[in-house]
Amino acid sequence: MKRQLSIAAGVLAAALVLTGCAGGNADKDAVSKLALKERTMTAGQTEKVAGAWEWKNGWLVLVRVDGKNSTGRYTDWNAYAFAPKGDSWTKTRDELADPADKPESTPHKATCLALAQTDSEVKSCDDLSD
What we know:
Blueprint: H1 2-19, H2 26-37, E1 46-55, E2 58-69, E3 72-85, E4 88-96, H3 107-115, H4 119-126
Antiparallel strand pairs: 1-2, 2-3, 3-4
Helix pairs in contact: 3-4
């Protein structure tokens, strides 16, 4: 009986993890939603969070924006930094990530490099491997 309960508990835990019901990171969800609210969308644009990572005492978020204009299709990568402010979060910085930093294949590193302000921060970005 104990073994059956143990197996059932394991299956249930695995199912919860796979369906995303085992909880999540409320801070990550909050800053991701805030990042999506930062831009004013224009017709034909779509956006999605490409990633969010803890950094220093806050969070970094990368938002991918796809659109089309008179010259064709484009992709922008918007990097945001958020810091805690009371019970919520406030944006402290935003920059466009450089396409040369390969945000599609190394989003964490590209976000870090876009928002780094000091040589030591840039050096810490170099150690990231997505």
